[in-house]
Amino acid sequence: MLRVAKFGGSSVASAEQFKKVKEIVKMDPTRKFVVVSAVGKANKEDNKITDLLYLCYAHIKYNMNCEAIFKIVEEKFCSIATELNLQFDIKGELKKLKERLDSKNISEEYLVSRGEYLTALLMAEYLGYRFIDAKDFVFYNYDNTYDYVKSEKAFEELTKNGENFIIPGFYGSLPNGDIKLMTRGGGDVSGAIVASLANASVYENWTDVSGVLMADPRIVENPKSIEIINYNELRELSYMGASVLHEEAVFPVALKKIPIQIRNTNRPQDKGTIINNSEEGAIQNVITGIAGKKDFSIITIRKVHMSNEVGLIRKALSVFEDYNVSIEHIPSGVDSFSVVVETKAVKPFIYELMAKLKKVTSAGEVTLTSEIALIATVGMGMKNSKGFSGRLFSAVGKAGINIVVISQTSDEINIILGVHNSDYERTIRTIYYEFNAQ
Ligand code: ASP
Q1: Which of 184, 193, 194, 206 to mutate to test the pocket of ligand 1 (most atoms within 8 A of CB)?
Q2: Mode of pairing for the β-strands spanning 130-131 and 31-36
Q3: Does residue 186's CB lie within 6 angstroms of at least one atom of ligand 1?
Q4: pLDDT tens digits, one per residue of 52-110
Q5: What pLDDT is recorded for position 438?
Q6: 37: Cβ below 6 Å to ligand 1?
Q7: What distance in angstroms lies between residue 190's CA and the mean position of ligand 1's atoms?
Q8: Pocket test for ligand 1, best of 34, 48, 54, 180 (most atoms within 8 A of CB)
């Protein structure tokens, strides 16, 4: 049994949080690999080290003084080191970093990556784990793709003596050795990469919530937390806006069928959520979760006898491709089909695009409906549950909500409803309470 435990920014935000991490890690000797984010927010008013470092870089770029901001970074790191009595020369490291900043001989990626780098070095001493730098085994190609084969070889070499290791998240390196940052929240991806390289039995993602919730708690009061969810269901929910884990974190572990556990550093007694390859969750509940996003546009192309015309949809879609617009859904009827896109993706040229569509397809009519919200009801249990969609639509209908568009693929894992932006919150609540007694 081998566990990879990744701790997010709020889990390492102070000396007190470091202590909780140590307790959790020491509780189970199979937690042999620990991945950390940079010191995060200790409370609502606090700042993340990552944000402060980005801000420092923005200052030097415009020849502004960043003393005050860098000072906050120093204070945060130094207070943790002092309170925990650590010997690591954090002051010296920060001084070297400040000198590089002052000489402007530093890239943004290098500077920002120091957040996780220094956090991991402090944690290494505190846990008595060996530090290994992510730049020495998380390898990217110049086109930003991850080089698994090269990474695997380096990882094997670095860890062959089988100790306990600590690794900074959020970055890797390019073939020339330069630091490459991941997108924000990328520590989750690092944890998943390490879990996959180490062939872990479990990837634990320790954060500040007790698992994935069935719905957004800003919309539904006290939503239930999901005990068990399939990788694909989680992908659908994250794509539609549910934010617990970085969207990309599922791939490295799903490939090797390594389960992910979302756990709460502040409440380790809570079970959290298990994300795995099984359909167990679907057996327990018909729906697993609900998520959604506002501000979509629907462009409808109407042409009589369209269904008999070969190649018409391709012609229309090529117009979207020319404008580099990614398409969300394509619901279709007999004499019309619609293309659902994010409003912000088409706004600057929408009328030009519609005119081109009309020309290319010789359509009778091209119309636009905007201010649409998409709501995904996700659950693998839906396919075994007859009458499910009837129940869903009738609940939404009874609430007096007009459904503008519906989309469902034949794997029946997800039903997407398009409603007006103004009905967004009400629709989510209606669906949630239909399938969870109030
Ligand atoms: N520190 C980075 C961020 O704030 C990465 C992470 O926390 O996972 O986005």
Answers
A1: 184
A2: unpaired
A3: yes
A4: 999 999 999 999 999 999 999 999 999 999 999 999 999 999 999 999 999 988 999 99
A5: 64
A6: yes
A7: 10
A8: 48
> Does residue 48 line the site of ligand 1, with CB under 6 A?
yes
pTM (2 decimals)?
0.85
Q: Residue 109 has which token pair?
A: 């990626």
Closest ligand 1 atom to residue 186 Cα is 8
Locus of tokens 């980005």: 54
Distance between CA 349 and CA 73 in Å, rounded?
A: 43
What dihedral do alpha carbons 168, 86, 125, 148 form, nearest 10°? 10
Which is the closest atom of ligand 1 to the Cα of 182? 5
Low-confidence ranges of the chain (pLDDT < 70): 281-284, 438
Give the distance, in angstroms, between the CA of residue 220 and the centroid of all CA atoms in the same chain. Answer: 21
Centre of ligand 1 to C-alpha 256, Å, is: 25
Query: Residue 267 CB: number of other CB atoms within 10 A?
Result: 13
Report how far ligand 1's centroid is from the alpha carbon of 6 (Å).
12
- Is the shortest distance between the CB of 246 and ligand 1 below 6 Å? no
Q: CA-to-CA distance for 413 and 232, rounded, in angstroms?
A: 8
Please indicate whether residue 185, judged by its CB atom, sits closer than 6 Å to ligand 1: yes
**How far is 143 from 179, CA to CA, in rounded Å?**
14
| Binding site membership of 50 for ligand 1 (Cβ less than 6 Å) | yes
- Closest approach atom of ligand 1 to CA 8: 7
Nearest-CA residue for atom 5 of ligand 1 = 185
pLDDT of residue 275: 94
* Both tokens assigned to 119: 């956090």
The beta-carbon contacts of 54-60 under 8 Å, at least 24 apart in sequence, are 54/108, 54/112, 56/101, 56/111, 57/106, 57/108, 57/111, 57/112, 60/101, 60/104
Position 243 scores a pLDDT of: 78
